[in-house]
Design brief:
- The protein has one domain: Glycosyltransferase (Alpha/alpha barrel), CATH 1.50.10.20.
- It is built from 17 helices and four strands.
- Helix 3 runs parallel beside helix 5.
- The chain starts with a helix and ends with a helix.
- InterPro entries: Terpenoid_cyclase/PrenylTrfase.
- Keywords: Membrane, Signal, Transmembrane, Transmembrane helix.
Length: about 425
Amino acid sequence: MFTAARLGAVALTAAAVLAGSAAPALAATASPVPVPAGLYGKSDPTYDGVWRQGLSLLALHTQGVTPADSAISWLTGQQCADGGWPSYNADPTKACTATTEDSNATSSAVQALVALGGHDDAVTKAVAWFRTVQNKDGGWSYNPGTPSDGNSTGLVVSALYAAKTDPATVTKDGKSALDGLHGFQLGCTAATAVQGAFAYQPDKAGKLVANDFASAQAALAAGSGSLPVAAPASSSASSSASAPSSASSSAPSSAPAANCSDSKGAASQYLARQLSSGSGHLTTQLAGAKPAPDYAGTAWAALALANNGRSDDAKQAVEWLRQNGASWAQGNGTPQATALALMILDARATGIDPQRFGTADLVAQLEATGPAPAATPAPSSSASASASEKSDKSSNASFSAWWLILVGLAAGAGIGIYISYSRKTRTRPRP
């Protein structure tokens, strides 16, 4: 349910959830549903309006962009009276239906509003809502009243961290949010290859089965992380993405093996192995379909790994997205705000300039999907340098052109003088 919704799919199925996120072919085309003026993205907002708005505001905020008031008010206007958010409410004047409120959308909204600042009341109400709809196992479901899942629990825990609320203090029937999160993680009794992974939900026999997409989102929470993931202190945000070493593209990083009882370390190690086996990306397989790259899962894995101190592994995933993410970001010709936002957040978390993401300016592309920003930062030094390089090239080209013209004129003049001199010498009387 979660993954299909987040990619703007027109149907929510359990199979899609268990398989992770869909390939670009499943991305929504232009929406038959009217898209509000304040919303980022042009695809159908029914299942992911709030989700993508939160991620878009987060991503642009990290780049110093001041969003339009309409973009922020659209998000705050979607909040329900009880503090949660729906996936999308086409008519905010009508009360929300409690059973269809969305823990994932609420997590995205909370993290965006915390980052933007000035929305303490909305965040406080959301945290209270999380407490109200928490399940007895300490976790959360996508919609209230259904069994908990690893994705949703991880996202809520990250939102609690962002809101400066200790997840250990958010409890239901003696189970904390951290109990709920760790309850989905495969521990030391699991096969070595899947230790540290998170399950989406137990299977029919009650067994936890590793799910890469659930692992990617839950691993961020396991590392006490939230969005946006901070840029590495030692890196320059002006650097562009560069290919990883041949070693990192074919094998896990050289980080020491994690203890299987170390939730953060084991989760990170599992994701690093999965990325390595996929040559830089996670893989998904929908029922009846062939295995395909999991773009969204790869983006979340990069965020988790960057947050958890595995920068080399995170960069491996980001490099893969730099080379292959264009089709995801431009699904069926319609720019996908969620994809653009996640790649901007990935770039920031690994010290890469999202305005020089290969040949793409992710920030400009995301801005173009929504209302014009109220303000944008001055061009970065890297952007200025790039502009200067272009100017120099243009100046050099212009200089070269004028030089050729001058040389041509001089040559022409010389030829003319020579011809004139020759004519004179030919017509001059011989002595």
